[in-house]
Design a protein that fits this description.
Elements (H helix, E strand, L loop, with lengths): L2 E6 L4 E8 L2 E9 L10 H23 L8 E7 L3 H18 L3 E5 H13 L5 E5 L4 E7 L2 E7 L5 H11 L8 H9 L12 E2 L2 E2 L2 H11 L9 H8 L4 H27 L3 E5 L6 H13 L3 E4 L2 H4 L3 H13 L28
Parallel strand pairs: 1-4, 4-5, 6-11, 11-12
Antiparallel strand pairs: 1-2, 2-3, 6-7, 7-8, 9-10
Family: Belongs to the KAE1 / TsaD family.
GO molecular function: metal ion binding; tRNA N(6)-L-threonylcarbamoyladenine synthase activity
Enzyme class: transferase
């Protein structure tokens, strides 16, 4: 029975979670929210995390009704992510490890999402669609690795949604993607946008540039002026949000279905912050149903970045014998999903 505390702080959310033998004991989180039209800068985000993380650790212990002596391992997000926020979590984890005399483990952020999704849903060996503000990957497990079958070749799907939300000056509370999702429900007119699938990979940067011009034709007045004027006359914000979601989600469904066919799988698991989107879940569910498969999805408690997913993945690593020398407890902004040896799975 392993009791693990996990710290996640790779982007604008800082979270602390505690899990014991698969039982969720605590999952607390805070979000750094900027004004409408603005993103979050690394140093300002790290400052926010520093101001709240110690209170979150205390809150998690209180919610879990345990003492530090009850813990078996301290886990933190090693990467990928933004360096300054990552360092906040790593420094606090190192300090707690020394203070409480507990082993320390660095966890891959992407692996945390995958293992949390598998644990909560009970999915056995699904094709995984990992969609967030920093990552877009189609993944399948094979021979002790989570293999990437397809991914974005430029920006992540969540980044595309967030940046368009800034163009429209939508609030960042609770998140830009959520507010686009709500506005899209009011859209009725589908506007053709670039559809960019290249084999198993996708591209979102061109779609973003195109829809930004439709939202504000003055951004590039000399490019396709007549077309933009014609499109912009019917391009209401709700219609643009609706069209953007329909297009980029269709691209994700396509490459996920292709991975299912290649692997002979009948399960799909959606993880990552964008995985909360109900329209994406519905579109993916229709595809799975037509193939006789099953969709697994989780709600915002576990989809959005959280410390619990780091605690759970770290606990699985710890139970399988993984150990990390203290001098290796650094962070890295680039840490691919398929770099991790999955020692805790035997299938």
């Amino acid at each position: 029975m392993v009791c693990s505390l996990g710290i996640e702080g790779s982007a604008n959310k800082i979270g602390v979670g505690i899990i014991r033998d698969g039982e969720v004991l605590a999952n607390v989180r805070r979000t750094y929210i900027t004004p409408p039209g603005e993103g979050f800068l690394p140093n300002a985000t790290a400052k926010h995390h520093r101001e709240v993380i110690l209170a979150l650790v205390q809150e998690s212990l209180k919610e879990a009704k345990i003492k530090p002596s009850d813990l078996d391992v301290i886990c933190y997000t090693k990467g990928p992510g933004m360096a300054p926020p990552l360092l906040v979590g790593a420094i606090v984890a190192r300090t707690l490890s020394l203070l409480w005399e507990k082993p320390l483990l660095g966890v891959n952020h992407c692996i945390g999402h995958i293992e949390m999704g598998r644990h909560i849903t009970g999915a056995q060996n699904p094709i995984i669609l990992y969609v967030s503000g920093g990552n877009t990957q189609v993944i399948a497990y094979s021979n002790k690795k989570y293999r990437i079958f397809g991914e974005t070749i430029d920006i992540a799907v969540g980044n595309c949604l967030d940046r368009f939300a800034r163009i429209l000056k939508l609030p960042n509370d609770p998140s830009p993607g959520y507010n686009i999702e709500q506005m899209a429900k009011e859209g009725t007119n589908y506007i053709n946008l670039p559809y960019v699938v290249k084999g198993m990979d996708v591209s979102f940067s061109g779609i973003l540039s195109h829809i930004e011009e439709l939202a504000d034709p003055t951004k590039n007045p000399n490019k396709r002026k007549k077309t933009l004027e014609a499109d912009a006359s019917v391009a209401k914000p709700a219609d643009l949000c609706f069209s953007l979601q329909e297009t980029i989600f269709a691209m994700l469904v396509e490459i996920t279905e292709r991975a299912m066919a290649h692997c002979g799988s009948n399960e799909v698991l959606i993880v990552g912050g964008v995985g909360c989107n109900e329209r994406l879940q519905k579109m993916m569910g229709i595809m799975c149903e037509e193939r006789g498969g099953k969709l697994f999805a989780i709600d915002e408690r576990y989809c959005i970045d959280n410390g619990l997913m780091i605690a759970h993945a770290g606990a699985e690593m710890f139970k399988s014998g993984s150990r990390m020398p203290f001098e290796e407890s650094f962070v890295t902004q680039r840490y691919r999903t398929d770099e991790v040896l999955v020692t805790w799975r035997d299938d």
